[in-house]
Batch of 2 targets.
Target 1
Amino acid sequence: MKRRSYASRPETLDTLFQGRLAIMQRRDGYRFSLDAVLLSHFVKLAGHEKIVDLGTGNGVIPLILASCNPSVLVTGLELQDSMVERAERNVRLNRLEPRVRIIRGDVCRIEQLFPPRSFDLVVANPPYRRIASGRINPDREKSLARHEIRGCLRDFIRAGFYLLPPGEKMDLVYPASRLSDLFNGMRAEGMEPKRLRIVHSYAESAATLLLVEGVKGAKSELKIMPPLIVYAKGKEYSPELKTILEGNSR
């Protein structure tokens, strides 16, 4: 991820995929992380999908999916006005207006925003810290994105269940330390875990992230994929990560 910094401005212009995708972000506010890139890579597309990203932030996941897959239509749902505005600018910056739209709305009130079963695929990078877990960041963009202040994991899964027809998929990224919460929440809301990829910083280190695909109303059977290793040594990305970040993996 290349970063261009402007000392006199509150935002930076970051690029992905060797400059093919540009993302405006607040310098000191919420910024997308590798989680979003890995989730976008994890998604399996058959073409012509209507996709919704719940809690889209700066819009990076819709931008990645639309830029790599010219047949998809992607909606980004975001609660915070500041990030809705920034995500809309990012859509225009990348000339993806015909296929990406950003909507302001609350995941917890999903029925007021969309009809049931109105998407083919749901993706989400939900807030991962409980209210009582750790210091809540004083920056509102960061705190709402990281802590379950305005929506918990179950709220996101429940919204995904509402938005999908039976048999369709929801893809999520979540901390490895909360695997039991994730699987229990998915099953409680009718979203059966069917595909799992575990992310490690190094081959010999403990897991850090989970990439999980659930299928609405499916029977129990989980496919565990080979682990995804971020670093080969030191701060050098693994060959797979380099390929993903270059945008050559689809």
Target 2
Amino acid sequence: MELEQLADPLAEVLAERYGAGVQIRGLRRGSGGASRVTCGFEAVTAAGEAHPLILRLTTQGVMAGGPLSQEAALMRAAGAAGVPSPEVIAAGDASSELGAEFVVMERVEGETIPRRILRDPALADVRPLLAGQCGEVLAAIHRIPVASVPQLEQTDQLEAWQAVLDAIGEPHPALEFALRWLTRNRPPARRSVVVHGDFRNGNLIVGPDGIRAVLDWELAHLGDPLEDLGWLCVKAWRFGAEPPVGGFGTYDQLIEAYEKAGGAQVDRVALRWWEMFGVARWAIICVMQAQRHLTGGERSVELAALGRRVAENEWDLLRMLP
């Protein structure tokens, strides 16, 4: 369905929340990849009250991560657990009026672009607090009752990403060496919790008061809580800044806030393992994205440039080895 054709069925969906006569204004496409479209718009009630909203829509025949219905359930469960999350206004499957799986949520104002979060003078006062806030938010995420999101699955992340690299069949000796080290030095298993799966600078909405919302739950699963903390510390998400946590804070700030907020005690050796796993995972994702370009699946300079970053991640992995 073309964008201009979404207005009427979207109004029909939102009538339950905003009443008959609701109008859709300013529907425009924003960010989104091959699997999902993101649009901003306003729902205007019959009384003239405007509600800024976001629509996420699954494109036909393509799926990445979990379904949007799962993402909507996660955001609702996260909000109930105290995680700053956009309110879910409506959600539906492919049999809905929109003809595709969708979720409508409130639009949260703030900054999401990492380089601005790290450099904008308007965020200078809150920037030193962000690592601690991340710790508090992650502790809340890991408190989400597993029973509230029964559709989440648990998989061995190291085996899963090794299988992805094997399936591509492209030789990367340094990456393979690091994966072998990770396999031989795996830390003891911890109690499984809800893991966001992509918690990092770039998936947070930040304002002068701090973190306002956590976005992009499509990679959520059950697993080790340190996976989220390690991923946040991956060098790629520092965007050229020195501080190891998202480019804005220290390990101590993150860990102390996480534990104080009720998160499990952090084993720093295990955290280092998960950070290293995160670098390897990002390297494999870069290989995947470059392959999309090289095989002609999606010609893109951006995807091709990600292929160059594989070597950067391999260098980081080699430097992290003890």
